[in-house]
Amino acid sequence: MKLKITINGEPREADGVWEGESLLYALRERLGLPGSKNACEQGECGSCSVYMDGTLVCSCLVLAAQAEGREVVTVEGIAPEDGLHEVQQAFVEAGAVQCGFCTPGLIVASHDLLSRNARPSDPEIREALAGNLCRCTGYEKIIDAVKIAGERMEAA
Ligand code: FES
Ligand code: FES
Q1: Is the pLDDT of residue 81 over 90?
Q2: pTM for this structure?
Q3: Residues 114, 156 contacting (CB under 8 angstroms)
Q4: Does 100 contact ligand 2 (Cβ within 6 A)?
Q5: Under a CB-based contact definition with an 8 Å cutoff, are residues 99 and 72 in contact?
């Protein structure tokens, strides 16, 4: 089947998509967007998080066919053209990136949280990011990064 989809504000098409194919696979393997990571492919780790019509989803659990005609924003679409988004910059500065495998999903999920609440408490951050697993950082630096980014987004 042919997939027609809007990704990061641009209309895109992919040919040869099969019925059982995930949105994650289509993004990475057909549409040249490898930012969303494939770690568990079971909805357990959050590394594949993207927005679909403004809602945070695990793209490994969404069929590419379900995304037909929808608007998808990936981690690549969060950054402005000329640099890093506040959330991305804060993750770097806070040392919240180690192997980086979880980072794209955490960036999208943190962006989602901070779009709704720029000053989340520690428990609110932990709850919002509970679906995003990180094996490296111990999460403290991620929480620091979210707070830094929230302050900057509020001030911007
Ligand atoms: S790869 Fe989608 S939740 Fe882990
Ligand atoms: S930085 Fe390695 S899994 Fe999070």
Answers
A1: no
A2: 0.96
A3: no
A4: yes
A5: no
